[in-house]
Amino acid sequence: MVRVTFVDVHGVEQAVAGEGDLSLMELAKANGIDGIAADCGGACSCATCLVHVDPAWVDRTGAPDDVEYAMLDMVSDVAGDTSRLACQIRLTPALDGLRVVVAQQ
Ligand code: FES
Question: According to its UniProt record, which cofactors does this protein need (predicted)?
Fold first, then answer.
């Protein structure tokens, strides 16, 4: 079980949990987190799953690969190296307790 706290686009905090092979985007969608549209279904081609990772967790979520980086380069609400596409973050036990803020779209 991996627990994640989302701060949605309205500033509302929601603590949710999931297990199995899930992305952060899939966990958000399964729990109806406002602001995660995920229009491309996780194909890294829409950027409507943009989140800002709590700086304390950036080391554990890792850096975007080249494809994700190219998508991030096209969106306006990028906040340095804390911005990630939620569909590109796999939930592992190391991310238990993760906190992210959903970006304004
Ligand atoms: S769901 Fe489309 S880029 Fe993440």
Answer: [2Fe-2S] cluster
At residue 83, φ and ψ (nearest 5 deg) are -85, 135
Please give the distance, rounded to the nearest whole angstrom, from the Cα atom of residue 71 to the centre of ligand 1.
9
pLDDT for 77 equals 81
Stretch 17-43: mean pLDDT? 97
Residue at token pair 């307790």 = 97
> Which atom of ligand 1 is found nearest the CA of 88?
4
For 55-92, the pLDDT digits (tens) are: 999 999 999 999 999 999 999 888 888 999 999 999 99
Measured from CB, residues less than 6 Å from any atom of ligand 1 are 25, 38-40, 42-49, 85, 87
Sorted by where each begins, the domain ranges of the chain are: 2-102
Tell me the per-residue pLDDT of 2-29, one tens digit each, with 9 for 90 and over.
999 999 999 999 999 999 999 999 999 9
Do 81 and 54 meet the contact criterion of CB atoms below 8 Å apart? no
Domain 2-102 falls in which CATH fold? Ubiquitin-like (UB roll) (3.10.20)
